[in-house]
């Protein structure tokens, strides 16, 4: 569950370099040519990926069903939230996020005669992250780390997730474009009871993880003004995703 996964604003140094001779001076004397220091961003995110199974306990009455019977697991999530961020130094950004998440985990059993199991859930997601960035003239590069926790309404334990996202991009007058990749590590646990009809009631306690940790993405950011920015990013490969941002920067 992603979380988290969010578009990141990166710092673009001028060709002449930063002002001042040290980190303290950079912190105190924010160059007006640099991006505004603080930001509030509305975030929307949708993701679809397959899950793998860690530990699993499935009981159909007195029968212990083996984990190999689980088959294919597909997870879909949609997240909406708010992110607040600040540039501590010209190359170092920190942020915090808070939002809601709505998801569905669908299990297609490998054994014939077992119906598809669908678990719907929602919850609250919160987390923190940091970005290191550097650029010269028309290009830039960044790497972002994020860790989140999600409290679910299913009674299952909270979901921990962390990700690392490297990017390289180019910058124009109003547009930025980039290509990148995301490594996502997720630890999700689902448990409950499901009615299998004529087969009876099944109880399950399953630990889930991403079947594939890496995916690629392409992004585009448009400067509406010096303070308002729009971002759209699409993920592809082992994990499909869409991310959109409306960002306001100030001071």
At a glance:
This protein is mainly beta and about 250 residues long.
Describe the structure.
- This protein has one helix spanning 23-28, and strands at residues 38-60, 63-65, 72-89, 92-108, 117-136, 139-152, 159-171, 175-195, 201-210, 214-223, 228-236, 239-250.
- It is mostly beta strands.
- It has a single domain (23-250), classed as Beta Barrel (Porin).
- Strands 1, 2, 3, 4, 5, 6, 7, 8, 9, 10, 11 and 12 form a twelve-stranded antiparallel beta sheet that branches.
- β5 and β6 form a beta hairpin.
- The longest helix has 6 residues, at 23-28.
- The protein is elongated and about 70 Å long.
What attributes characterize this protein structure?
elongated, 12 strands, 251 residues
What layout of secondary structure does this protein have?
Blueprint: H1 23-28, E1 38-60, E2 63-65, E3 72-89, E4 92-108, E5 117-136, E6 139-152, E7 159-171, E8 175-195, E9 201-210, E10 214-223, E11 228-236, E12 239-250
Antiparallel strand pairs: 1-2, 1-3, 1-9, 1-12, 3-4, 4-5, 5-6, 6-7, 7-8, 8-9, 8-10, 10-11, 11-12
Question: What's the CATH topology name?
Answer: Porin
Structural class: mainly beta
Number of helices: 1
Total beta-strand segments: 12
Major beta-sheet overview: 12 strands, antiparallel
Domain unit count = 1
**Percentage of β-strand residues:** over 45%
Overall spatial form: elongated
- The CATH architecture category equals Beta Barrel
CATH class: Mainly Beta
Mean pLDDT value: 85
Terminal-residue CA separation: 34 Å
Order of helices and strands: HEEEEEEEEEEEE
Q: From the alpha-carbon coordinates, what is the Rg to the nearest angstrom?
A: 21 Å
Query: In which range does the helix fraction lie?
Result: under 10%
Low-confidence stretches: 1-20
């Amino acid at each position: 569950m992603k979380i988290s996964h969010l578009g990141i604003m990166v710092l673009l140094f001028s060709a002449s370099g930063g002002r001042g001779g040290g980190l303290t001076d950079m912190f105190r004397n924010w160059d007006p040519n640099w991006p505004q220091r603080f930001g509030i961003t509305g975030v929307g995110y949708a993701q679809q990926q397959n899950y793998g199974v860690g530990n699993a306990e499935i009981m159909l009455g007195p029968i212990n069903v083996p984990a190999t019977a689980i088959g294919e697991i597909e997870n879909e999530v949609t997240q909406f939230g708010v992110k607040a961020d600040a540039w501590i130094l010209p190359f170092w950004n920190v942020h915090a996020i808070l939002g809601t998440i709505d998801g569905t985990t669908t299990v297609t059993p490998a054994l014939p005669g077992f119906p598809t199991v669908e678990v719907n859930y929602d919850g609250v997601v919160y987390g923190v992250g940091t970005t290191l960035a550097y650029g010269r003239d028309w290009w830039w590069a960044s790497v972002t780390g994020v860790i989140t926790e999600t409290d679910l309404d299913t009674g299952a334990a909270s979901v921990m997730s962390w990700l690392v996202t490297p990017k390289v991009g180019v910058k124009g007058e109003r547009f930025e474009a980039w290509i990148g990749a995301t490594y996502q590590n997720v630890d999700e646990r689902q448990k409950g009871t499901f009615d299998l009809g004529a087969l009876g009631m099944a109880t399950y306690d399953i630990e889930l993880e991403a079947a594939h940790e890496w995916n690629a993405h392409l992004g585009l950011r448009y400067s509406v003004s010096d303070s308002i920015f729009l971002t759209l990013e699409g993920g592809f490969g082992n994990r499909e995703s869409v991310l959109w941002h409306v960002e306001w920067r100030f001071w």
